[in-house]
């Protein structure tokens, strides 16, 4: 018999998680204004709110925490990170930042002005927030296949070159400071972008003189999908694929809380020395000196080690198979999920799951609340609440998909936990026809409302 693959690690430390009763959860979620972000973690049994900063670190990363060099300038931990960014990711210049959004803030402070546009594939919410805060526009050029959850296109994060060229033709070069490729594409379901597409976007952008940047939070998971699904890359190592991918970019922003395998941190990398200097000035006022950028030396060391580990095939194989396992289990139960299953999360189609809940009553949020009440499992709405209001008309923007995201933290939960999640969702699915109403907003902030919005039952 052929030996199956298994995790390339064993577990050295465990952490208690808390069970609760349905009655307790019903009370807690009401007190939380029906916003899952408002629940304290001891009220959650399995936490799939995000895969951001929620992973477990390896013993070698913890060793880096002890070895952290806390020198203000020229820290040895910084030099370790510099070596990985230069040798493994292939960029000569970088700034550490406290998170991905801080890297976005610096890059957009340097490049983006009112009225400009940033084309890309379904920009991440904080990215869009930073763009719109500067009165500029994010233009989504994702391929149409991404919006059909049953379409089995292997690279649903791809950019539609016709849509992109349309943006290039209808704007001047000065209006488009960059094109942003998000790998993997979080907002369209953790879906990868093919190397072929990255190359084509780079070629097209070169013709119009537009630099290509990556939002690289899940760059390693994207590289895994390229290896698995793109014939020419099957025999290449993840590190080779990563290097080629990044070779087409002028730089990247990265939330290191994803494939950096750390609990906090971000990066901004670039090829251009002058851009590095400009960004360095913003980095110093917003984040800290250019060699630490809001992080401790120990954080930089753990990140250097994390980037080396997340670009190893056996780790990625175990990671992505666990997510796929959950997705397949849900499909076995007949639950409508985004296909193919993405890299870091399973996305449940709330419009198909809860057809009786009106669109204006936030079906994906409603489903998230039902799943929490059922089993203490916390997912997150990727739908109308997240899409926010149109900045000009202040009307709700209804995105093409209304999804409940179940994000799987890295190296944290077991396969039994996956079975539990699937069973909880199956129970909700069995009583889906009884769920006929959702929620309405009681209070919301100006932007990024999903984090703090308060709701009541409709
Ligand atoms: C998480 C994330 C960000 C923002 O990073 P933070 O570290 O949360 O500030 C940006 N883009 C993508 C694709 C992300 O997943």
Query: What's the overall geometry?
Result: globular
CATH topology of the largest domain: Aspartate Aminotransferase, domain 2
Separation, N- and C-terminal Cα atoms: 56 Å
Query: What fraction strand?
Result: 5-15%
CATH homologous superfamily descriptor of the largest domain: Type I PLP-dependent aspartate aminotransferase-like (Major domain)
**Mean model confidence by pLDDT:** 96
Radius of gyration, Cα only, in angstroms? Answer: 21 Å
DSSP summary, beta strand count: 14
Domain count: the total is 2
Helix content: 40-55%
Going across the biggest sheet, name each strand in turn: 2-8-7-6-5
How many helices?
Answer: 16
Task: Please identify the top-level CATH class of the largest domain.
Answer: Alpha Beta
Give, in order, the helices and strands.
HEHHEHEHEHEHEHHEEHHHEHHEEHEHEE
Features of the shown structure:
Aspartate Aminotransferase, domain 2, alpha/beta, three-stranded antiparallel sheet, Aspartate Aminotransferase, domain 1, globular, binds pyridoxal-5'-phosphate, 458 residues, five-stranded mixed sheet, 16 helices
Question: What would you note in describing this structure?
Answer:
- The chain is globular and about 60 Å long.
- The termini are far apart.
- It is α/β, with parallel strands linked by helices and 458 residues long.
- The chain is built from 16 helices and 14 strands.
- The mean pLDDT is 96.
- β5, α7 and β6 form a beta-alpha-beta unit.
- The strands form five sheets. A five-stranded mixed sheet has the order 2-8-7-6-5, sandwiched between helices. It has a three-stranded antiparallel sheet with strand order 9-12-11. Strands 1-10 form a two-stranded parallel ribbon.
- It folds into two domains: 22-51 and 313-457, Aspartate Aminotransferase, domain 1, CATH 3.90.1150.10; 59-310, Type I PLP-dependent aspartate aminotransferase-like (Major domain) (Aspartate Aminotransferase, domain 2), CATH 3.40.640.10.
């Amino acid at each position: 018999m052929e030996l199956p693959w298994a995790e390339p690690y064993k577990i050295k430390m465990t952490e208690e998680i808390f069970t609760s009763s349905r009655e307790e959860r019903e009370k807690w979620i009401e007190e939380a204004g029906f916003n899952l972000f408002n629940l304290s973690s001891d009220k959650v049994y399995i936490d799939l709110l995000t895969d951001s900063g929620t992973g477990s670190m390896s013993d070698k990363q913890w060793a880096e925490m002890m070895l952290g060099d806390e020198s203000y300038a020229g820290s040895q931990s910084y030099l370790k990170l510099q070596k990985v960014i230069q040798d493994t990711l292939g960029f000569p210049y970088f700034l550490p930042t406290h998170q991905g959004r801080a890297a976005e803030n610096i890059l957009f402070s340097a490049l983006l002005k009112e009225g400009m546009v940033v084309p890309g594939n379904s920009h991440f919410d904080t990215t869009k927030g930073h763009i719109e805060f500067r009165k500029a526009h994010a233009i989504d050029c994702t391929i149409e296949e991404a919006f059909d959850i049953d379409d089995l296109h292997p690279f649903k994060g791809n950019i539609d070159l016709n849509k992109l060229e349309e943006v290039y033709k209808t704007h001047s070069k000065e209006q488009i400071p960059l094109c942003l490729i998000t790998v993997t594409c979080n907002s369209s379901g953790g879906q990868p972008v093919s190397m072929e597409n990255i190359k084509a976007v780079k070629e097209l952008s070169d013709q119009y003189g537009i630099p290509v940047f990556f939002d690289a939070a899940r760059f390693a998971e994207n590289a895994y999908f390229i290896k698995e699904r793109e014939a020419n890359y099957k025999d290449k190592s993840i590190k080779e694929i990563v290097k080629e991918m990044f070779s087409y970019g002028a730089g990247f922003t990265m939330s290191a809380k994803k494939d950096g395998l750390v609990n906090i941190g971000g990066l901004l990398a670039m090829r251009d020395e002058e851009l590095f200097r400009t960004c360095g000035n913003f980095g110093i006022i917003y984040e800290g000196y250019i060699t630490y950028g809001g992080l401790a030396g120990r954080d930089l060391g753990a990140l250097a080690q994390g980037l080396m580990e997340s670009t190893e095939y056996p780790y990625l194989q175990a990671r992505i198979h666990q997510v796929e396992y959950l997705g397949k289990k849900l499909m076995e139960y007949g639950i409508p999920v985004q296909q193919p299953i993405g890299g870091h999360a399973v996305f449940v189609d709330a419009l198909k799951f809860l057809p009786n809940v009106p669109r204006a009553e936030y079906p994906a949020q409603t489903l998230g609340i039902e799943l929490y009440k059922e089993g203490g499992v916390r997912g997150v709405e990727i739908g109308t609440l997240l899409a926010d209001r149109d900045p000009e008309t202040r009307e709700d923007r209804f995105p093409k998909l209304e999804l409940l995201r179940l994000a799987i933290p890295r190296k944290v939960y077991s396969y039994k936990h996956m079975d539990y999640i699937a069973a909880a969702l199956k129970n909700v699915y069995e009583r889906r026809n009884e769920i006929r109403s959702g929620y309405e907003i009681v209070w919301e902030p100006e932007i990024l409302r999903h984090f703090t919005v308060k709701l009541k039952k409709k």
